[in-house]
Specification:
This protein has helices at 35-46, 67-79, 97-109, 144-156, 180-188, 224-244, 253-272, 285-294, 304-309, and strands spanning 8-15, 19-23, 54-61, 85-87, 115-119, 128-131, 135-137, 140-142, 174-175, 194-196, 201-203, 276-283, 318-324. It is of the alpha/beta class. A six-stranded mixed β-sheet has the order 2-3-1-4-5-6, sandwiched between helices. Residues 216-337 form the Tail sheath protein C-terminal domain.
């Protein structure tokens, strides 16, 4: 079991000619695109410490009368096309922000790990980053919906071992300036904003739009880095199980142990890479016992090992406990003289 590559940006633009193209570098950008759209693709490609793995460019018709159909077709296309981060730099102008937010939530509910960078939307979702600030290149302002292309590329180009907090955006000369109090308020409200440190523009905090926490989702679900690691683990294990285990082994205790060993080996690799602190997988005895009871099998006199080895049909009940490493973000330094 190996760690998969992350960092695929789905960039949806509007232009005269409809098309789909995978972009790996600036040289792949279609020459027929408008100058504005070429710049948006370049913004998505910039990344952070590395460039995105690729940009899936989806060009919709720019005719207003086609808008409803174009969005429906785009959503249908990306339901069966893999990506990590979606940006639609015309979504607010098209009044489709809430629709795309709902679509992303529905995709994640169906166990897809896709996410989106959207402008000015209080989505309260770990799958949506809410950008509310403008960026500037000298006198040119890039409003939040345009900035989403840059942020999607920024996140996609952030290695799994670090966060995009305080990532410098040297390709811009200024941003919507906020006081320290305003920045704290925005971050607490799940808003992705930028700060001016006196010399350059930086991303303030690598957070998504989550504001509501509870028993199921704690504060860690607010961090883009943590959610990326969660999604990666889910994708990697699902893909390996589908490709190498489902339908290919008898459901014996020994074969379950083979799968558990593979998952724990994967966790060990993530520990070595500095992505998680610890991770262990084992048979979920409580779920296995419940299944046996549901099927009228007496479990009262069965030992724990007998429950582990019991025949549970085609089911494999596993559980894992993982501790994901966060990045250094909050430093307290008391200096005594």
């Amino acid at each position: 079991m190996e760690r998969g590559e992350r960092g695929v940006v789905a960039l949806v633009l509007k232009d005269k000619t409809k098309q789909k193209k995978v972009i790996y570098s600036v040289s792949d950008i279609p020459k027929e695109l408008s100058d504005e759209n070429k710049e948006l693709v370049e913004m998505a490609l910039r990344g952070y410490q590395k460039t995105p793995q690729k940009v899936i460019l989806y060009i919709m018709s720019s005719k207003p009368e086609d808008m409803e159909t174009e969005y429906q077709e785009m959503e249908k296309y990306f339901e069966i096309t893999g990506f990590n981060w979606l940006a639609v730099p015309s979504v607010e102008t098209d009044k489709k922000t809430e629709e795309i937010a709902s679509w992303i939530k529905a995709q994640r509910k169906s166990k897809r790990t896709v996410k989106a960078v959207l402008p000015n939307v209080e989505a309260d979702s770990e799958g949506i980053v809410n950008v509310i600030s403008s960026l500037f290149k000298n006198e040119t302002e890039y409003k939040p919906e345009k900035v989403t292309a840059r942020v999607a590329g920024l996140i996609a180009g952030t290695p799994m071992t670090i966060a995009c907090t305080y990532a410098p955006l040297t390709d811009f000369t200024d941003c919507t300036r906020m006081t320290a109090e305003e920045l704290d308020s925005a971050v607490n409200a799940g808003k992705f904003v930028f700060l001016w440190d006196g010399e350059k523009v930086k991303a303030c905090r690598g957070i998504n739009s989550v504001v509501t926490v509870g028993n199921e989702k704690g504060d860690s679900f607010k961090k883009i880095k943590i959610v990326e690691a969660m999604d990666m683990i889910q994708d990697d294990i699902r893909m390996t199980v589908q490709d190498n285990y489902i339908g290919k082994f008898a459901n014996t205790y020994d074969n379950k142990c083979l799968l558990i060993t593979a998952i724990n080996g994967y966790f060990s690799e993530l520990i070595r890479e500095g992505i998680i602190e610890s991770g262990t997988c084992e048979i979920d005895i409580d779920s296995q016992r419940s299944y046996l009871q549901t099927n009228k099998i007496a479990v009262e006199d069965m030992s724990e090992q007998e429950i582990k080895e019991a025949n549970v049909g085609s089911h494999v009940f596993l559980k894992a406990k993982v501790s994901i490493l966060d990045a250094i973000e909050d430093i307290d330094l008391n200096i005594y003289i």
